[in-house]
Amino acid sequence: MELSVLNIKGEDTGRKVTLSDAVFGVEPNEHAMYLDVKQYLANQRQGTHKSKERAEVAGSTKKIKKQKGTGGARAGSLKSPVFIGGGRVFGPKPRNYSFKLNKKLKEVARVSALSLLARDNKVALVESFTFDAPKTKEFISILSNLNSTGKTLVVVPAVDKNVVLSGRNLKKVKVSTASDLNTYDLLNTDRVLMVEDSVKVLENLFSAQ
Protein backbone atom coordinates (compact mmCIF):
# COMPACT_ATOMS: atom_id res chain seq x y z
CA MET A 1 0.00 0.00 0.00
CA GLU A 2 1.25 3.46 -0.91
CA LEU A 3 0.28 6.69 0.84
CA SER A 4 0.96 10.24 -0.27
CA VAL A 5 2.85 12.49 2.14
CA LEU A 6 1.02 15.71 3.00
CA ASN A 7 2.48 18.92 4.37
CA ILE A 8 1.00 20.82 7.34
CA LYS A 9 -1.12 22.86 4.92
CA GLY A 10 -2.85 19.70 3.74
CA GLU A 11 -1.16 19.82 0.33
CA ASP A 12 0.32 16.81 -1.45
CA THR A 13 4.13 17.00 -1.41
CA GLY A 14 4.41 14.67 -4.41
CA ARG A 15 6.23 12.02 -2.34
CA LYS A 16 4.82 8.60 -1.54
CA VAL A 17 5.69 6.06 1.11
CA THR A 18 5.15 2.33 0.68
CA LEU A 19 3.72 0.79 3.84
CA SER A 20 5.00 -2.64 4.85
CA ASP A 21 2.45 -5.42 4.47
CA ALA A 22 3.88 -7.01 7.61
CA VAL A 23 2.68 -4.04 9.67
CA PHE A 24 -0.15 -2.44 7.71
CA GLY A 25 -1.43 -5.32 5.60
CA VAL A 26 -2.06 -8.32 7.85
CA GLU A 27 -5.41 -9.98 8.47
CA PRO A 28 -6.72 -8.38 11.69
CA ASN A 29 -6.90 -10.72 14.68
CA GLU A 30 -10.01 -9.55 16.53
CA HIS A 31 -9.47 -11.72 19.61
CA ALA A 32 -5.92 -10.44 20.09
CA MET A 33 -7.18 -6.85 19.86
CA TYR A 34 -9.95 -7.63 22.36
CA LEU A 35 -7.49 -9.06 24.90
CA ASP A 36 -5.06 -6.16 24.52
CA VAL A 37 -7.82 -3.57 24.98
CA LYS A 38 -9.20 -5.53 27.95
CA GLN A 39 -5.77 -5.53 29.60
CA TYR A 40 -5.26 -1.81 28.92
CA LEU A 41 -8.61 -0.90 30.53
CA ALA A 42 -8.00 -3.27 33.45
CA ASN A 43 -4.65 -1.62 34.10
CA GLN A 44 -6.37 1.78 34.36
CA ARG A 45 -8.42 0.63 37.35
CA GLN A 46 -7.07 1.72 40.73
CA GLY A 47 -8.71 -1.14 42.58
CA THR A 48 -8.96 0.90 45.79
CA HIS A 49 -12.69 0.25 46.37
CA LYS A 50 -13.52 -0.85 49.91
CA SER A 51 -16.59 -1.36 52.11
CA LYS A 52 -16.68 -2.22 55.81
CA GLU A 53 -17.63 -5.68 57.02
CA ARG A 54 -19.27 -6.28 60.39
CA ALA A 55 -15.91 -6.59 62.15
CA GLU A 56 -14.90 -3.11 60.93
CA VAL A 57 -18.09 -1.16 61.66
CA ALA A 58 -18.09 1.08 64.75
CA GLY A 59 -20.80 0.21 67.25
CA SER A 60 -21.68 -1.49 70.51
CA THR A 61 -21.15 -5.23 70.85
CA LYS A 62 -23.89 -5.50 73.49
CA LYS A 63 -26.63 -8.02 72.76
CA ILE A 64 -29.54 -5.81 71.73
CA LYS A 65 -32.35 -8.00 73.05
CA LYS A 66 -32.85 -11.28 74.81
CA GLN A 67 -32.49 -14.48 72.82
CA LYS A 68 -36.02 -15.81 73.28
CA GLY A 69 -39.50 -14.60 74.07
CA THR A 70 -39.63 -11.47 71.88
CA GLY A 71 -41.53 -13.03 68.99
CA GLY A 72 -38.85 -11.89 66.59
CA ALA A 73 -35.71 -13.33 65.13
CA ARG A 74 -32.59 -13.72 67.22
CA ALA A 75 -30.24 -10.73 67.13
CA GLY A 76 -26.86 -10.49 68.79
CA SER A 77 -25.21 -7.37 67.38
CA LEU A 78 -26.07 -4.03 65.80
CA LYS A 79 -23.17 -4.65 63.42
CA SER A 80 -25.08 -7.42 61.70
CA PRO A 81 -25.68 -6.79 57.97
CA VAL A 82 -29.44 -7.08 58.50
CA PHE A 83 -29.50 -3.78 60.44
CA ILE A 84 -29.14 -0.27 59.04
CA GLY A 85 -25.59 0.86 59.73
CA GLY A 86 -24.32 -2.68 59.95
CA GLY A 87 -21.47 -4.16 57.95
CA ARG A 88 -21.81 -5.13 54.30
CA VAL A 89 -21.83 -8.76 53.25
CA PHE A 90 -19.24 -9.74 50.61
CA GLY A 91 -18.45 -6.09 49.85
CA PRO A 92 -15.66 -4.96 47.50
CA LYS A 93 -12.08 -5.21 48.70
CA PRO A 94 -8.88 -3.62 47.32
CA ARG A 95 -7.51 -5.75 44.50
CA ASN A 96 -5.24 -5.60 41.48
CA TYR A 97 -7.14 -5.99 38.20
CA SER A 98 -4.08 -6.28 35.95
CA PHE A 99 -3.27 -9.52 34.17
CA LYS A 100 -0.46 -10.79 31.97
CA LEU A 101 -0.45 -11.02 28.19
CA ASN A 102 2.34 -12.44 26.08
CA LYS A 103 4.48 -9.89 24.28
CA LYS A 104 3.88 -11.59 20.91
CA LEU A 105 0.11 -11.39 21.34
CA LYS A 106 0.30 -7.67 22.11
CA GLU A 107 2.38 -7.14 18.97
CA VAL A 108 -0.19 -9.06 16.91
CA ALA A 109 -2.93 -6.87 18.38
CA ARG A 110 -1.19 -3.61 17.49
CA VAL A 111 -0.31 -4.75 13.99
CA SER A 112 -3.92 -5.86 13.54
CA ALA A 113 -5.19 -2.43 14.65
CA LEU A 114 -2.78 -0.64 12.29
CA SER A 115 -3.83 -2.88 9.40
CA LEU A 116 -7.50 -2.28 10.19
CA LEU A 117 -7.01 1.50 10.11
CA ALA A 118 -5.00 1.33 6.88
CA ARG A 119 -7.64 -0.85 5.25
CA ASP A 120 -10.36 1.66 6.19
CA ASN A 121 -8.29 4.59 4.84
CA LYS A 122 -8.00 6.17 8.27
CA VAL A 123 -4.23 6.70 8.13
CA ALA A 124 -2.69 9.88 6.72
CA LEU A 125 1.04 10.62 6.40
CA VAL A 126 2.32 14.07 7.30
CA GLU A 127 5.80 15.48 6.85
CA SER A 128 7.74 16.26 10.02
CA PHE A 129 6.74 19.40 11.92
CA THR A 130 7.54 21.01 15.23
CA PHE A 131 6.96 24.25 17.19
CA ASP A 132 9.37 26.69 18.76
CA ALA A 133 7.08 26.74 21.80
CA PRO A 134 3.73 25.13 22.72
CA LYS A 135 1.19 26.65 20.32
CA THR A 136 -2.27 25.12 20.51
CA LYS A 137 -3.75 27.50 17.90
CA GLU A 138 -1.18 26.43 15.33
CA PHE A 139 -1.81 22.79 16.20
CA ILE A 140 -5.55 23.29 15.64
CA SER A 141 -4.78 25.00 12.32
CA ILE A 142 -2.76 21.98 11.17
CA LEU A 143 -5.59 19.61 12.09
CA SER A 144 -8.05 21.80 10.20
CA ASN A 145 -5.83 21.83 7.11
CA LEU A 146 -5.69 18.03 7.22
CA ASN A 147 -9.49 17.74 7.64
CA SER A 148 -9.20 16.04 11.03
CA THR A 149 -12.28 17.17 12.96
CA GLY A 150 -13.11 14.01 14.93
CA LYS A 151 -11.00 11.96 17.30
CA THR A 152 -7.44 12.19 16.07
CA LEU A 153 -4.33 10.26 17.07
CA VAL A 154 -1.10 12.04 16.12
CA VAL A 155 1.87 9.67 15.93
CA VAL A 156 5.35 11.18 16.18
CA PRO A 157 8.65 9.26 15.81
CA ALA A 158 10.10 10.53 19.10
CA VAL A 159 9.05 12.68 22.04
CA ASP A 160 8.60 16.31 21.01
CA LYS A 161 7.68 18.29 24.12
CA ASN A 162 6.27 21.28 22.24
CA VAL A 163 4.06 19.12 20.02
CA VAL A 164 2.79 17.15 23.02
CA LEU A 165 2.01 20.31 24.99
CA SER A 166 0.34 21.93 21.97
CA GLY A 167 -2.17 19.11 21.68
CA ARG A 168 -2.58 18.24 25.35
CA ASN A 169 -5.59 20.49 26.00
CA LEU A 170 -7.53 19.36 22.93
CA LYS A 171 -10.31 17.01 23.98
CA LYS A 172 -10.41 14.86 20.84
CA VAL A 173 -6.67 14.77 20.18
CA LYS A 174 -3.95 12.53 21.55
CA VAL A 175 -0.25 12.68 20.70
CA SER A 176 1.75 9.47 21.01
CA THR A 177 5.20 8.27 20.00
CA ALA A 178 5.32 5.35 17.57
CA SER A 179 6.98 3.09 20.15
CA ASP A 180 4.30 3.82 22.77
CA LEU A 181 1.28 3.10 20.60
CA ASN A 182 -1.34 0.86 22.16
CA THR A 183 -4.29 -0.98 20.67
CA TYR A 184 -6.88 0.96 22.66
CA ASP A 185 -5.76 4.34 21.32
CA LEU A 186 -5.59 2.98 17.77
CA LEU A 187 -9.13 1.64 17.89
CA ASN A 188 -10.53 4.61 19.81
CA THR A 189 -9.86 7.16 17.06
CA ASP A 190 -11.43 8.35 13.84
CA ARG A 191 -8.14 9.12 12.10
CA VAL A 192 -4.42 8.62 12.56
CA LEU A 193 -2.08 11.41 11.49
CA MET A 194 1.29 9.72 11.25
CA VAL A 195 4.45 11.76 10.90
CA GLU A 196 6.43 10.30 7.99
CA ASP A 197 9.39 9.08 10.05
CA SER A 198 7.06 7.17 12.38
CA VAL A 199 6.49 4.56 9.67
CA LYS A 200 10.13 3.43 9.85
CA VAL A 201 9.96 3.23 13.63
CA LEU A 202 6.89 0.99 13.49
CA GLU A 203 8.36 -1.22 10.77
CA ASN A 204 11.56 -1.68 12.77
CA LEU A 205 9.55 -2.33 15.93
CA PHE A 206 7.40 -5.05 14.38
CA SER A 207 9.93 -6.40 11.88
CA ALA A 208 10.02 -9.74 13.68
CA GLN A 209 6.35 -10.32 12.88
Automatic annotation (TrEMBL):
One of its GO terms (cellular component) is ribosome. Keywords: Ribonucleoprotein, Ribosomal protein, RNA-binding, rRNA-binding. Residues 45-75 are annotated as: Disordered. One of the primary rRNA binding proteins, this protein initially binds near the 5'-end of the 23S rRNA. It is important during the early stages of 50S assembly. It makes multiple contacts with different domains of the 23S rRNA in the assembled 50S subunit and ribosome. Part of the 50S ribosomal subunit. NCBIfam families: rplD_bact. Belongs to the universal ribosomal protein uL4 family. This is Large ribosomal subunit protein uL4. The gene is rplD.
